[in-house]
Structure formats: C-alpha cells, structure tokens
Design goal:
Number of helices: 13
Shape: globular
Bound molecules: N-(aminocarbonyl)-beta-alanine, zinc ion
CATH class of the largest domain: Alpha Beta
Structural class: alpha/beta
CATH architecture of the largest domain: Alpha-Beta Barrel
Helix content: 25-40%
CATH superfamily of the largest domain: Metal-dependent hydrolases
CATH topology of the largest domain: TIM Barrel
Number of strands: 22
Distance between the termini: 47 Å
Largest sheet: 11 strands, mixed
Amino acid sequence: MGEITSPMGRFDQSKGESYMSVLIANGTIVTSLGEYGADILVEGETIVAIGKGLDKRAAEVIDASGKYVLPGGVDNHTHFALPFGGTVTRGFETTPAAILGGTTTIVDYAPQPRGMSITDSVAKHDEERASGKSAVDYAFHGIVMDVTDGLFEEIPKLPERGIPTLKLFMAYKGTPYMVDDATLFKALQAAKKSGVTIMVHAENGDVIDLLQKQCVSSGQVDPKYHAVSRPPAVEAEATARAVAIAAMADAPIFVVHVSCREAMEAIRDAYIDGVSAYGETCPHYMTLGVDNLSKPNFEGAKYVCSPALRSPEHHAAMWQAIGKGWLQVVGSDHCGFDWKEQKHMGKDNFTKIPNGAPGVQYRLALLWTYGVETGKISRQKLVNVYATAPAKFNGLYPRKGDIAVGSDADIVIFDPQWEGTMSVNNSLEGVDFCAYEGMKQKGRVEKVFLRGNLSVDNGKFVGQAGQGRFLKGKPFGAAYQGL
Ligand code: URP
Ligand code: ZN
Ligand code: ZN
C-alpha cells in the first residue's frame, strides 16, 4: 500500500488520507520582505513549490489574478473564554470570526485559576475550552493571575510545554493579578535563561485605582470616565518602569497593547539604548477614539478596554511606530463581551464594565483600509505586523507567518477591489455589536486556506469547528527579532 497520485491529488493508503493538490495561480504574493507574481503549489497541509508557470495538471487550480496572496495572519493577542471582570468572554466556538478575517493562528492567553500552576492552567484551557472547538490553529501565552509559590521555578520550564511567553499585569489593583516591581523583576530573571519572553500589561494600577475612586465619589460614573481614570501618563510611566526593570534584569520584554505615544517612545528609546524591548499595538488604538467612549445611552461601554482609547494624535503615533518598526506587532486583544448583558454590569459605575473589546475579525481589514489604502504602511509592513513578526515572537516561524516552501499552507487570497462596511450583521464574533460598526472597508478576504483546507470561500466561513490544532511555540522568540 503506498501513495497514489491522481489528477486531483494524492492518496496515501497507509494513512487512509487523501491529499488534495491545490495550485494558487497568477496572484501577487506579498511577504514581509517583498511582493512578486508567482504560483503556489500546496500538497496536503504544506506549501511545496512557489514559482512562475508551475505545472497545473496535478492540481485543482485557483485563479488569483488581480488578487494579493498573503500568509494567514497570526493574532498575538486574543482572549477566548477568559473569565474577567466578573464574567467570561465568548469561547473558541467563535473562532470562525478569526479565519473570516484572515487569521489562521491565534495566540490566546490561558487564564490562571487561583493557586494553579501556569502549565496546568494552559492544559486546562486547551482541554476544556479550545481543543475540538477552535477553527484556527492556536498556541498559548501563560498569564500570571495569582503569584503562586512555585511560579519562579516553573517559568524556566515553560518552553518544555510549548509555552515560550508569559504575561504579567502591572494594573487591575484589587485583583490577585496585579504584580509589584519585585515580582516583575524576578519573573524576568527567571525567564531569561530559558528564552521565555515576559509580556507586560503596563499601566500604573495604584494611580488608576485612586483616579477611579475620585471619579466615582464625585459622580463621574459614565463610560467616558474610564479614559479619565486611565490617562496616557499612567501607561507611559508603567511602560518606562517595565523597560527599565527589564534592563536591570538584562532580559527581553514585550509590552502588549501599547496605546499612546509616550509609552511607544519609552519602548523605542530603550531599544535604541540596547534593551531588548518590543511592543504591540492594536487596531482600536489606531482607529477608535475617546469620542466612542462618550457615545450616549451607555453605548460608550462597548469601547471600555484597557488601556483606554486615545485621541488622533496617539493614533498617528501608532501608525508611525509600526511603519518604522518601533512597535513590531499588531494584535487584536479580542474580548467577546456583549453589550446588553455583560457591558451593562457597569451601567451605574464604569469601573464595573468588563474591560475589553471584540475585534478578531477586523485586524487585517482595518490595517488594509486605514493603513495600506491611506499610504500609512506598505503591504509588506502589514504582512509583517499581522503575521510574520508575531509568528517569530511566539516561536512559530517559519511554519506560520510566511509564504515559503515548507511552511504550512495557511494562505489568504485578498481582493483589493471589494468595498463594503463593517457591521455586526456580517460578524461571526458572537456578540451583539461590532466595535467598528459603519466604518468603511476596502478590500476583503476572499478565500482562506488553513493547512491546505479551504476554510473561507467568497467571504464566507466554510471550514469546520475543531479543525484548529494546538501549536507548541519555541523559546527565544524575542531574540529572533532582527526587524
Ligand atoms: O481591556 C482589556 N485589554 N481586557 C483584556 C485583558 C487585558 O488586559 O488584556
Ligand atoms: Zn492587558
Ligand atoms: Zn488582552
């Protein structure tokens, strides 16, 4: 029993599997390094050849004339099934939203229940919530939500379990998540030797707590006061402190969801000074502003996320930062809380609104429409921040994040001519609103392959729940950044 090649693909009888060959012909391939016209031959789950005029006989041919062909996106920052703020985000059954938006891999934060080790928390998150449900491939970051006795001994062992990244919170005072500077320093020391990258939510939790109390005691309870209690300065101070602590520990640090110019500059300047300081921003910090938080009838609650949304001056700084490579990654920070039930938990007090906004479906569309189409970033830069750099940081490259021979056949065929509007009516995020409702969209994800399986066709999800697989990340991702 061996391998039979037929005009439509290969059949490996010993495995009982049939392998379709697919040729994506005549498209313009865009990678983080450049773009060129070529065909891509996929066999089974893998890209096996890239070239001009590849033999079309042994494959199903997809004509990508006039289309861009991009690597599947890698979303460095999602929160599926996250218990947070007294409620829980939508689970992995809503991951078709990711692939509909061109994301074929997510790196999700595995929440840590009280007293549980990070590795057990990750295993629990996978077994109970992700496995058999995810429509995209997935890896995990650990999150410290409770500093256990064994934490610092456990950190160097995380890569053995395929977990090369760990997030700590400098904010959310009053919860067991918020860590002090000594804990951050010790975690950085423990992480360094084994190539674990410490990620940090950088906001000054003590000052926020005080500002929140001052707002509430003076009757300032509407969603817009979320931004008043979390001004850029609280983020800038904590970011500068985090990168300084990383310098003291001589360890890499990755600052997640950077939203303001001053925080971005602290990372940029530390990097120039020789610190391995890196960062991520998110589409909402490039396109949505404080005006959204001021929407009447409690609509502002939809936009309560931390850090808070910023003014256009900061949006410009975020676009500049990704264009220049001062921030390397754009992640969604997707949190599927609905408005009617969950956001209303803070109807009378903004501090009770669960923090986080949905957006996993719109990362590529927003980067394209408001970045590429406006000339703020190149197509290559888009591919880098949405796929290649996050794959590298998370130890998934070159299997993920690139169009290359030997890489997984995670491929997006993108129609740049399409025009439409973002709306909850075409969202698969599973919540009752779209954070980008009514915003124009230029270009659309037409087809997506996940490891060779057609999962989006004509802008519709055609894949299967549970088709996603767990991926082990390799350590020393931060050291991979010669970007
Ligand atoms: O508002 C946010 N970002 N919620 C999710 C948790 C976090 O801090 O990333
Ligand atoms: Zn955070
Ligand atoms: Zn987050």
